[in-house]
Each structure stands twice: as C-alpha cells, then as structure tokens.
Design a protein that fits this description.
Oligomer: homodimer
Helix content of chain A: 40-55%
Structural class of chain A: alpha/beta
CATH architecture of the largest domain in chain A: 3-Layer(aba) Sandwich
Strand content of chain A: 15-25%
Number of helices of chain A: 12
CATH class of the largest domain in chain A: Alpha Beta
CATH superfamily of the largest domain in chain A: Response regulator
Number of strands of chain A: 12
Mean pLDDT of chain A: 89
Low-confidence stretches of chain A: 1-12
Chain lengths: 340, 340
C-alpha cells in the first residue's frame, strides 16, 4: 500500500493478545487479567505484559473484549429488503434507539426467503450478537431455539405473535374499521384486496381485519377478490390488473402495504381508470412516498421509525435483564387523502 | 427466561475459549492450537481440551476466529442517513456484492456530522472491521490515517477524490451538459441551483459542472441564485421558496439530488407555480420516487444500487490484496420526464 506521500507502508495484521502473550512470555489469560484487572498478576509478569503492549502497539479492542465478555456490542436487523422504504425507516428508528448504548446494527436482507432467514439466525449465534430484531416471513417459533439457548434476545416486528418472543405490532383494527366504514358511506359494496404470499406461518392478519370490517359495514370481500403477491410495487401493478380484469371487478381495493398500493395506482393509470371514481385504493404504513404520488394515497399510518425505536427499546430492556415476554401494539391511524 | 413450554431456562453467557482452557487445565493458546491445528499439541492435553469442549458445549465461533485471524467478517457502511432512499439502495447494492463472501454490513448513520463520522471510523479500528465504505461529509484524508495504519481498506463514495483511497463517483459532466443544453433550447437564460452545505472539504462538484455547462450554453448561474442546505426534502422546500421570492427569480433550478428537487416541487405547488412552465426543475440520482411524483421528475440517473455494488467490488479487491488506488466513475444519464 502506498500512502499519499508515496511512502510504502506495510499492511499489518492487528496485534493480538496472543502476540502480546508470546512477547511477554506469559499466557493469554495472564494478558487478559492485566488488561481487565479482574485478577491479581505478579508484578514481574505485569511489567512484562505492559512492556510488550507498548513495544507491539497493542490496542485493547472490542474483539478481544467480546471473547472475554461473550458480547459483541452488535445487533442484527433481519428484514426482507433495506431498499423497501418502510424497512429503511425502521432501521433508522432502531439505530437511533440503540445509539446511546453504542450498539452497531448489521442489516441483513432475506428477500423474504426462509433459507436466508435461517442463515442469518445461525450467524447471530456464531457471532455472539447481542440481539436480533426480525421481520420474519417463513420462520416458526422452533427456528429460534438456538438463539434462545444462547441467551440472545429476539424482538419480532410483525402483525402476529411468535410464541415466547418480544413483539412490536400494528394495532390496525380501529383504523381498518374506519376505512371500511368510509368506503361503505361512499357507496362501495364490493371490496378487493392485495395481500402477501400464500402459506406464510403468520397468515393474513390484515386480510382478516378487512374481512371482519367488511362484514360489519355490509361490503363483500369474496375470496375471488383476494390476490396474492410479494409486498412490492410490481405485485401491486400485477394485482390491480388481475382484479380489474375480473368479470365483476371490485370498486375499492385495500392493499397490504403502501408499495403495493402505489403499484396498483400506477396500473390504474396505465389502464385509464380514474382513482378513486373508477376504483378506490388504500394502502398501509404511510411511507414518505404515499403523500408524494398523485392522487395522494389514502393509507393507514404505521410509523416505521417508531416501530424501529420500539423494537430497540424492547431489545435494550431484554439485554438489561427483563425476564417476561413483552408486546408493544402501536395503534395505527386512518389517513384520508385522495384515493378513497 | 421462560420458553414456550413453560420451562425455565438459564440465560447463559456463551462458553469462551478461556472457559475451555480452565476446565482442561491448559492455556488459552493451547486451546487455540487444538482448534486451529496450527501447532502440534501433546496428546494428553489435546484430549483434555476435547473433553472440555464436549462437556461445556463450546462452539468455535466467529469472535474467537477474529481474535486468531484479526478479521471480523464485517464491513461498515458509513452514510448520512439510511432513511434517505439513495443510501438504502446503495446499502442493498453493497450487501448484494459482499453477500457471496459472507461479510456482514453494519450501517452507521452520521447525519452528515463530523463527530459521528470520526466516531464510526474509530469504531472500525477498534472492532477490527474488514473494510469501510463511506460517503464522507466533513472528513479530510488525514482522518483516515488510523484505518490505513491498521490496514483496513476504505472505499469512498463521493463526487471528489479522497487522496489515497479507492473511489466510486458519478461522472455527470456529459449528462449535465445535455440538461443545460435542453434548458437553453427551451429558452431558459437564468438558472438557479440548490446545493449542499457551505464549506465541506469536497466543495461543490455538481455546482461546478452546472456552472461550466451554463457558460457553454449561454445561461446565467449567478452566485445570488445558489442556495445551500442539507440534501433533504425540507431543504428543497426552503430553497425553492427563497429562490422564487428573489426580485429576479430563476426560470429553472437544478438540484443537487432528487430529495431536494422533490421538496422544491412541493414548494412550487404550494406557491401556485406551474412546473415546468413557471419554473423548471431537475434532480440528480433518479431514486424510485422521482418517477412517482407528478409532474414526473426529470433527473440525472446515478443508480444507487450499482454505486453500492461497485463499492463492494472495490472493497473485495482491496481485501484480496490489490495494492494500487482504484477509481470507478459511473457515467450518469439524463432522464427527461416532465419537469424540464
């Protein structure tokens, strides 16, 4: 490596405690006692260790600390995709909550695939991470056994409980009831829905809430009007096309998240359908872009930054020794803009 | 901790090499030789270590490996804000490039503050990170001395070179010239610009490119029409208001990034100004939302995912032993939509 003055520098491996031990002629354990002060060390040995530290330029570092303490000062955030703005905001909220306690956050993208989810859980055990915050797609409670056995706290951000784990979830029942009530008053009778993939262990809690609300307000939400896909813009584009090409299409469509709703909005525009007069649309989350599209997206606000910071607070409590399982339900809020 | 069967589990610290050494009555160094096979160990001692490993349930882990190898299999991404969609996409690109080599990526938000930037660089040294990818706001080359001395590779994602460090940058000269040429043909003569904060070490490379292009195409870009702010929507709102309230306002405004341009678009709407007929706007980057706002934002495409993966490739090359300084200039592209 050549630095900017043209001098050649040697690339060096960091000096380890083992190097110090070798140079001082003592064991690594003795070096660690000198560094931590946890046990007395004979003066001659202590002096030898300190001389070796000075000579080699050893710096006590977090890795060596980890080996002594079993702690890495690092937390994993395991999510489908950091490029999804909901998760980017959630990540920021988590990081802001953990920042005062100096935890690093590693961001792990699973693409909502089970194999990736398992791999990152395994990694968390191997790397002695201090905690995991996860939005699982395909995991079941047994998948967390190794983390539980290793004493690694887990906080789940999802709509449904994962047995034994701390949970941050949306409490959307009230907001969804208001949204469906609003649609009923606007004369809608036939509701469609764009939801996530079939067969996930968590099921479709948002679909269930819409179904119950539709029942209360006299709207139909038949199985033929429920279309499945990933939680993406592309899924929203495809989903709206499928629903609006049905013989008897819906007059309003509820979407599992805003990205899906924004895709649906694009597809409606491409098909020459006016929103909300030809088809009403409602999202979920209120990501930043919801208020930037035209017409502005009506949605159910579930503030991602707060979700992330709530996850962070639960994790810190658990790291701090809280024993019982905790759940935070964040009440969501109907935001009426221009699409319903 | 109570698991889902109601059984009480003990929260345990992970078993360390020191625990194994104690139980086997040998030094930690001996344990590490048994594990790594790097040096021969007397059979009696080896058997004692292996018995202790079985008895204690010790698992060789990445932390212990780090102490032996001086490597953490972790890379830091140090950026102003992961909630900015450009950086979320860049993060995803970086992670995708590093994924096959199993590196974890810790995401560090600096809010474009020097103190935070320095803190995360220091952290990278203390934690023996394998590399750093950074978009610096206030750092100067000397700030990287400790990383260079520790042999930690650094890749900078920015418009201007940081002496001695690998660089991924936008090559926007051609696209900016085209944009200004387009504005000239549309009859614009007075160009304003919304740029970043004053006094950053990198200066204002995008402003310089617009200034040169304005000169070539016969447009004015006077200092009085350059407004500074953070690279945010809020700065765009405030910046457009200031420019359009000038006695002699510009007829077109170039923005340092899309977020600023989107804020400017909102402010124009609030002021009752039509875009582009009252004021033309152009962004930089082409984040997803650029094509979702109305009117659709014209911009200069600098694809964040590719930027991130280029950073990842440079980092892997450097970790793999490449000595010379490398630079990747990604040619940007004018995207004409509806705002110029």
């Amino acid at each position: 490596m050549t630095d900017r003055n043209g001098e050649v520098r040697m690339e060096q491996q960091p000096v380890t405690m083992a190097d110090v031990a070798r140079a001082a002629g003592v064991s690594v354990t003795t070096v660690s006692y000198v560094l931590s002060g946890k046990r007395p060390v004979a003066p001659a040995k202590r002096d030898a260790v300190q001389a070796a530290i000075t000579k080699l330029g050893f710096r006590l570092n977090t890795v060596a600390q980890s080996l002594r303490t079993g702690r890495s000062s690092t937390v994993a955030l395991i999510i489908p995709d950091i490029a999804n703005p909901f998760y980017a905001q959630l990540a920021r909220g988590l990081q802001d909550a953990l920042r005062p306690d100096k935890y690093h956050v590693v961001v792990c993208n699973t693409n909502a695939e089970r194999a990736e989810e398992l791999l990152y859980l395994d990694d968390a055990v191997k790397r002695w991470l201090d905690g995991v915050v996860i939005t699982p797609s395909w995991l079941v409670p047994d998948d967390f056994d190794a983390l539980q056995a290793a004493g690694i706290p887990v906080v789940v951000s999802a709509d449904t409980e994962m047995d034994g784990l701390d949970l941050v979830r949306a409490d959307s029942q009230g907001a969804i009831d208001q949204a469906v009530g609003h649609l009923a008053r606007e004369g809608h009778r036939r509701l469609g829905m764009l939801v996530g993939p079939a067969g996930t262990p968590a099921g479709d809690p948002r679909l269930e809430l819409y179904r119950a609300a539709a029942g209360r307000h006299g709207l139909d939400l038949p199985a033929s009007l429920v279309v499945r896909g990933k939680h993406t813009r592309e899924a929203g584009v495809a989903g709206l096309r499928r629903l609006m090409n049905r013989k008897n299409p819906p007059t309003a469509i509820a979407c599992v998240n805003d990205l899906t709703a924004i895709g649906a909005l694009e597809a409606a525009e491409q098909m020459g359908l006016a929103v909300p007069s030809d088809v009403a649309l409602i999202g979920h989350d209120d990501i930043e872009v919801a208020s930037l599209v035209r017409p502005r997206l009506s949605t159910i606000r579930y503030p991602a930054h707060e979700v992330g910071s709530a996850c962070g607070r639960l994790l810190l409590e658990r790291i701090g020794g809280r024993a019982g399982q905790a759940e935070v339900a964040l009440r969501t809020q109907l935001v009426l803009r221009e699409t319903i």
